Every structure is written in C-alpha cells, then in structure tokens.
Amino acid sequence: MTGTIVFWVVVGIIVALVITVVGIYNSLVALRNQVRNAWSQIDVQLKRRHDLIPNLVETAKGYMKHERETFDAVTKARAHAEAARGVPQIAQAEGRLTEAISRFMAVMENYPELKANQNFLAVQEELASTENRIAFARQAYNDAALLLNNKVEMFPSNIVAKLFAFTKEPFFEMEDSSERAVPKVSFS
C-alpha cells in the first residue's frame, strides 16, 4: 500500500513538473512571437519611411538647387538604413537618418515657396505621420522585448529558457545622445 502511494505521489510530481515546463515553454514562445511581430511592425514603418524620403527630396530639389550636400546626406543615410541588419545596427542607422532628415527640414525653412508647395506639404505630412508610427512601433517592440527578457531571466522560467535556447532580445535604443537631449526653446 505504501509503495502505491509513493508511486502516485512521484507520478503526480512528474506530471506537475511537465505541465509547468510546458506552460513556461508556451509562454516563452508567445512572448518571442510578440517580439517578432513588434519588430515586423517597425520594419513596415521603416520601409514606408524609406519610400517617402525620395519623394520628399525630389519635390524639394526643384526649389533648393544649392543644397546638394543636404540631399546627398539624406540619400546616403537612407541607403545605410535600408542596408542595416539586426536591431542595434538598424537603430543606429535610423538615428543617422533621423538626423539627416532633421537637417534637411531645417534647411527647408529657408525656402518659403517650397513650404507652400502642395506636393511637398503632402509628403512632409506623410513623413511626420510615419515618424509617429515608427515611435509607437518602437515602443511596442521594446515592451515586448522587456516581457520576453524578464521571462528569460526570472526563475523558474530561466531554467526552461536555457533548456530550449531562448535568448534576450536587444532594445531599440537611440545611439546618438543628442537625440536624448531636451530641446532648447528661445523666444528672444
């Protein structure tokens, strides 16, 4: 009788462990898929951004004939961003592209007739909308990466994560510290 009880207790413990491992494994898979989905959303928005930039530059070229260096900087930054692979490299390349676009927009301020052009305004509005979508997608990706990273590091799920080779995901962070700086506003 005692042997039978011990047997069922051992079987119960094994079943409980298997159910726990399966549950943890499934939650890790779900979190990994959330990270992948969030990354694909960033990728879609970055592609949209990359597609809009040539339209913006081409529209502006007719007005800004003396700004070749600015156009080249945006074009090169876009090419680097499209060629980048992996979260850290893409984040860095996109940071450079953002800087180039910001410089381009600052130069554009010197051309009031360009700012009044309807095609340019439409493309500029699309780009601004896309920048907002990118920011939202980055936040969603970082939130998903945080959840997965916590699960990969916390006990007991870290044991299952190591058994099945789940790894932490990098955050999409700004490389340029100047992007973190608070902008100065002056009315004088």
Describe the structure.
This protein is mainly alpha-helical and 188 residues long. The protein has a single domain (2-170), classed as de novo design (two linked rop proteins), CATH 1.20.1440.20. It has six helices and no strands. The chain is rod-shaped and about 95 Å long.
Radius of gyration: 25 Å
Say what the CATH topology is.
de novo design (two linked rop proteins)
Compute the number of helices: 6
Q: Please identify, by name, the CATH architecture.
A: Up-down Bundle
Q: How many separate structural domains?
A: 1
The fraction of residues assigned to DSSP E strands is: under 5%
Overall 3D shape: rod-shaped
Low-pLDDT regions: 177-188
Structural class: mainly alpha
Q: What string gives the helices and strands in order?
A: HHHHHH
* Helix proportion: over 70%
CATH class: Mainly Alpha
Give the termini separation: 92 Å
- How many strands appear in the DSSP assignment? 0
Considering the chains and any ligands shown, give keywords for the structure:
disordered C terminus, mainly alpha, rod-shaped, single chain, de novo design (two linked rop proteins), 188 residues, 6 helices
Write the layout of secondary structure elements.
Blueprint: H1 2-61, H2 68-83, H3 87-108, H4 112-115, H5 118-153, H6 157-163
Helix pairs in contact: 1-2, 1-5, 2-3
